[in-house]
What does this fold into?
Amino acid sequence: MSDENRTIHEFDFELICEYYSGMERQGPGSPEVTIKALSFTDNLTADSRIADIGCGTGGQTMVLARHTSGRITGVDLFPSFIDLFNLNVKKSELQDRVNGIVGSMENLPFQNEELDMIWSEGAIYNIGFRRGLNEWHKFLKTGGYIAVSEASWFTDERPVEIDKFWRDAYPEIDTVSNKVAQMQNAGYIPIATFILPENCWTEHFYTPQVSAQKSFLKKYKGNKTAEELIANQRHEAELYYKYKEYYGYVFYIGKKI
Ligand code: SAH
It folds into this structure.
């Protein structure tokens, strides 16, 4: 990569971070869904160690923290998200047991069998579902839980337009039954799966973006990268409304054997 490209890339990251920083969530989800996924787990105590991987600014982590009593470490690649995460922790008065650190899901700073639960909402696609499930397995204690949400197909067939969009964006998108098999092959008992309700995409994700997009475009008027970023976000939202019966996010909860 040339220096020029790298600069453009870094600028992209900064813009993307700024765009998402003002939002409670950086992916589809809701407090109700986090609590529902948590309801399939058990045996967590005040001594439990939990990791929230790709935690973003921590919308779901604070919900998780209020409904568990263990220690939670949030990990995200982007320092500006972690700064906001730790501000959120303080505001929620959870600093005695929740902490955000900068790190990569490809190289996590945990010991083997250190964790009682791994949480990851709308983020495992960054490493890939199969690779993430396989590589993170060693950090969990036997009997520990993994709970991840992931883009999935609801049907075997779908219109070409949406099929092509996802194959370009995330070729590992697959049907729910194939993902469950992948979870089992990675050494977990599949405990539960459920489809995230539509309000996780609308009310909690795309709707708050509408006004954010307007002010972002105003601030970066004439900036091509910013305009492209918003055009992409709008296109993605339009596709969701058009094709939501064919795909969505699914929570997969597994237990390490
Ligand atoms: N869990 C949050 C954020 C989801 S968006 C929510 O549901 O709102 C995906 C997150 O993954 C972003 O915060 C992004 O910064 C983070 N991410 C991307 N690549 C990563 C990596 N290699 N390691 C850790 N985090 C990563």
Summary: Residues 25-27, 29, 54-56, 59-60, 75-78, 81, 104-106, 121-123, 126 surround S-adenosyl-L-homocysteine (CB under 6 Å). The longest strand covers residues 140-153.
